[in-house]
Amino acid sequence: MHGENDTQFPSRYELGDDLPSRHPISGSHLSLWDLTRGRRKLLGHCLALCSTVFLHGYEFVITAAVASTPAFQHTYGRKQRNAYIIPAAWLALWSAAGPIGIMVGSIIGGRLQDRYGRRSSLALGSLLSIVAAALCFVSDRPDEIDSRRGVFLAGKLLQGFAIGMLICMSQTYLSEVLPTTLRGPTIALLPMFTLFGQLIGAIIIHFSSKSGSSDYYRTAFASQWVVSVFTLTCAVFLPESPAWLLRVNEVGKAQKSKRRLNLAQEDTDLGASASSDSNDTSYLQCFQGGHRRRTIIVSFSSVLPQLFGLTLFSNASYFLGMVGMAAQTSLIFLILGILLGLLSTFVSIWYTAISMIVIVVVCTAGVWPASHVIASEASSLPLRAKTQAIGWFSFGLAATAFSIFFPYIYNADRGNLKAKTGFVMAAFTVVGFVGTYLSLPEMKDRSPSQIDRMFELDLPTKDFKFWQEDERTLVGQGHHMITLQALMITQVRHVFL
Q1: CA of 324: how far to CAs of 68, 72, 203, 423, in Å?
Q2: DSSP SS3 for 326
Q3: Is cis: bond before 10, omega within 30 of 0?
Q4: How far apart, in whole angstroms, are the C-alpha atoms of residue 317 and residue 331?
Q5: pLDDT in tens, 424-477
Q6: pLDDT value for 226
Q7: Looking at residue 469, what DSSP letter applies?
């Protein structure tokens, strides 16, 4: 005897409202400006929270770009022929320190924000970021060169840990409070804030290197405090996530938080939040049942920017120095590449620099913002913080691997591939393209409950775009139609025969 929920036709579709239709979801016909009316307070809080992503880009370019400056190389490097260079082993460690910190920080942060709230995680991450900047600031004080390198490594590790907590919390918060119509456009801005942070950091490095001081890089390290203090201030004034408050049974506080965010009832879809306490969830649940597929989607989309060379581009100024470009010129090209990336939301050496700029523009217009949106939408609300943490752990793991890998293939004292490194990256982009086509579903304009339903039905990736709640027909990619009558006959036969 079969229960009514056991019957499926075909094997992964249920009869009724949850069948794909022949037409994709049309979405809202309102302009983005119209959609923001009445929600300016909400968007103000969300944009202020994006300062954590700005800090991510700012800190990474500061600590990466200084490696291309002569004063830093003289203090932390060793002499080879007529110039100072950073040994490949230490360069790889420094490059990997941030991503490793992100891996640990995101996992711990995912647990902390579920237990103590989103604001507490934001405040703790900001305080740790301030301490990390202080370690980098004093790292040149020890007499022994390995001690200087070690203190700088500790600062980068702690900074990565803080960044992991901050960006994991930010993406979770944004995906919880933003209404469906604004979730995609707003979260797609995260790469822009990353690039903006990188732009400001590169400009500071460029002009401070002209100051004539022998330790001008310390000014760049100290400037990180300004951004960290701002994110700490955000933690004071930011309303707590209503979704988290509901899950800890603080209904009154959740309503108050919704009023502070100026959220209308129709802006939120928190039914799943009210019925589940995220404190009782574990990371193991993210890999059980239907959540396994969603976690894999989040993890893969988080890794996509790395497959297109994000780690290599964050070290672009040092990399261009290895292929023969002067330090000041490489910094200018880094700034130009970031600027063109923001506007898009010669032979040998010059060709390499220009090619990197083009790739930044293309990735910023497509895969990078899309990866953030997909990662934010794919996870279920009760497991959202932990799934986001796993996604950023995957990002950090990929960034760590690439950070260790790349210096050994392009650095002068190792593989010395220089511009030929681009062929290696081309292979990874093919992997990213194939994986995207086969595994990432279309979730544009879907509410959390609709996304939950599609994953419960185990829809194939290609059918997410065409599924509608109110349709009674299933159109198979232009080949054939299964009518309601045929489905009913099949169901009767399945139950009684």
Answers
A1: 12, 18, 21, 19
A2: coil
A3: yes
A4: 6
A5: 778 888 888 898 888 888 888 788 888 888 898 888 888 888 888 754 334 333
A6: 93
A7: T
DSSP H or E stretch at residue 474: strand 474-476
Closest by CA position to 241, among listed 411, 324, 119, 135: 119
- Could you count the other beta carbons within 10 Å of the beta carbon of residue 12? 11
DSSP code per residue over 263-298: --GGG---HHHHT--GGG--GGGGGSTTHHHHHHHH
User: How wide is the angle at C-alpha 300 spanned by C-alphas 299 and 303, nearest 5°?
Assistant: 90
Who's near 230: CB < 8 A, 6+ residues apart?
51
The encoded tokens of residue 187 equal 């979260």
**Helix ranges, 178-216 (H):** 180-187, 190-208
Contact 131, 108 (CB under 8 A): no
**Residue 378 · residue 301 · CB < 8 Å:** yes
Cα angle for residues 72, 330, 404 (degrees, 5° grid): 65
Picking from 45, 229, 8, the residue whose alpha carbon sits closest to that of residue 133 is 229
Both tokens assigned to 321: 């120095």
d(Cα 101, Cα 114) in Å, to the nearest integer? Answer: 20
217 within 8 A of 68, measured Cβ to Cβ: no
3-state secondary structure of 209: coil
Query: Is the model's pLDDT at 184 over the cut of 50?
Result: yes
Across 189-208, average pLDDT: 84
Which residue bears the tokens 């500790």? 154
Token pair, residue 230, equals: 């701002």
Distance in angstroms (rounded) separating the CA atoms of residues 70 and 72: 6
* Inter-CA distances, 332 with 213, 217, 256, 336, 363, Å: 20, 17, 48, 6, 20
Q: Given the DSSP bridges, would you call strands 78-80 and 474-476 parallel, antiparallel or unpaired?
A: unpaired
Nearby residues of 83 by Cβ (< 8 Å), 6 or more positions away: 73
Residue 87: is the preceding peptide bond cis (ω within 30°)? no
Query: CB of 50 within 8 A of CB of 64?
Result: no
Q: In the prediction, which pLDDT does 34 show?
A: 64
Backbone phi and psi for residue 415, each to the nearest 5 degrees, phi listed first: -65, -35
The one-character DSSP state at 239 is P
Q: What is the pLDDT of residue 344?
A: 52
Among residues 386, 115, 384, 120, the alpha carbon closest in space to that of 270 is found at 384
Based on the number of CB atoms within 10 Å of its own CB, is 221 exposed (0-12), middle (13-18) or buried (19 or more)?
Answer: buried
Q: Is 32-467 a CATH 1.20.1250.20 domain?
A: yes
Question: For the segment 124-155, what is each residue's pLDDT rounded down to a tens digit?
Answer: 999 999 999 999 999 999 989 999 999 999 99
Cβ burial of 424 (10 Å; 0-12, 13-18, 19+) is: middle
Amino acid identity for residue 99 in this structure: P
